[in-house]
């Protein structure tokens, strides 16, 4: 618990608010823009997490503590369980019949798999951005306002839409065409719109599954800059195949290897410059994977 900066009151308040909102009972105060607080507070923690798809084990005994308001990258070869881990955090695996979870996945100390957790409320606090931009066939404005309406949030729509588009670095490009179809935007703009849509409902965590892999280099670079900015306000967890990208944008890196094992988790610089495990070094240096 951070104490030197006197942030413990804020942290406790937000912990309590998160738990209440996970239960779907209490609206959380709109504390958007509460100010940057550099923190090493753990937001998400996996304890002995196993995930199976029928008989196939996709994750094995994963233990990790993901810090607040930093970018944590998940890297590793294809099929090692990165996306499975990401989807475990906000219970997207609930939508897969074959998926089964053992162990614990805590969000601010509360196991998200407890029976009293409402997955819809959870996904409001832990938003997700996918590999391929998936705007709804609606206007730009309605895309960003969508979650506010579905969740019946008592906020000033105009203000939240503008703020979210600004945070997603898209406002200047679309402010004069908010009624235009989102489908007419470029791929990179669509992805930033999806980020704005995720931001609008005031999450604490944004999960990103290869958010730039379908984009050209210029659009990718804009998303990377944006991710860096987002970490001032949100905890970002990103799956990427691109090791250079992980090295560029993340503070922490988790390396999963075949069999769904989390082999090493540390500061990104340490992982890329001096990893503890030979298997990680071999992967980073391209000897396999
Ligand atoms: N819906 C599913 N049903 C059955 N098996 C699945 C399902 N999703 C993933 N798997 C299996 O779980 C393992 C982990 O997959 P996952 O997609 O999490 O890996 P990944 O590291 O994200 O891979 P990639 O980098 O290729 O996206 C793989 O063996 C995969 O085949």
UniProtKB/TrEMBL annotation:
Single GO molecular function: ATP binding
Extent of Polar residues compositional bias: 15-24
Highest taxon of the lineage: Archaea
Keywords for the protein's UniProt record, in alphabetical order: ATP-binding, Cell membrane, Membrane, Nucleotide-binding, Transport
Keyword Transport among record annotations: yes
Annotated ranges, domain ABC transporter: 44-284
Region (Disordered): 1-37
This protein's record includes keyword Phosphoprotein: no
SMART domains, A to Z: AAA (SM00382)
Entries under Pfam families matching the protein: ABC_tran (PF00005)
The name this protein goes by in its record: Phosphate ABC transporter ATP-binding protein PstB
Species annotation: Halapricum hydrolyticum
């Amino acid at each position: 618990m951070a104490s030197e900066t006197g942030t413990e009151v804020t942290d406790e308040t937000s912990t309590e608010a998160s738990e209440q909102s996970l239960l779907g009972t209490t609206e959380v105060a709109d504390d958007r823009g509460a100010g940057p607080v550099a923190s090493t507070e753990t937001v998400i923690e996996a304890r002995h997490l196993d995930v199976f798809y029928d008989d196939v084990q996709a994750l094995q005994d994963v233990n990790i503590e993901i810090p607040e308001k930093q970018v944590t990258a998940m890297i590793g070869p294809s099929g090692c369980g990165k996306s499975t881990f990401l989807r475990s955090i906000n219970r997207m695996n609930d939508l897969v019949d074959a998926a089964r979870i053992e162990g614990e996945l805590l969000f601010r100390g509360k196991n998200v798999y407890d029976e009293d957790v409402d997955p819809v409320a959870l996904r409001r606090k832990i938003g997700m951005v996918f590999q391929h931009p998936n705007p709804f066939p609606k206007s730009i404005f309605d895309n960003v306002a969508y979650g506010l309406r579905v969740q019946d949030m008592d906020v000033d729509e105009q203000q939240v839409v503008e703020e979210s588009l600004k945070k997603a670095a898209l406002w200047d490009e679309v402010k004069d065409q908010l009624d235009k179809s989102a489908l007419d935007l470029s791929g990179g703009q669509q992805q930033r719109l999806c980020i704005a849509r995720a931001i609008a409902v005031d999450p604490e965590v944004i999960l990103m599954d290869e958010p730039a892999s379908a984009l050209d280099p210029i659009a990718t670079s804009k998303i990377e800059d944006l991710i860096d900015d987002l970490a001032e306000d949100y905890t970002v967890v990103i799956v990427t195949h691109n090791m250079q990208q992980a090295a560029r944008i993340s503070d922490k890196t988790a390396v999963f290897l075949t069999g769904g094992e989390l082999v090493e988790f540390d500061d990104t610089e340490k992982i890329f410059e001096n990893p503890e495990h030979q298997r990680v070094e071999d992967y980073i240096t391209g000897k396999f994977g």
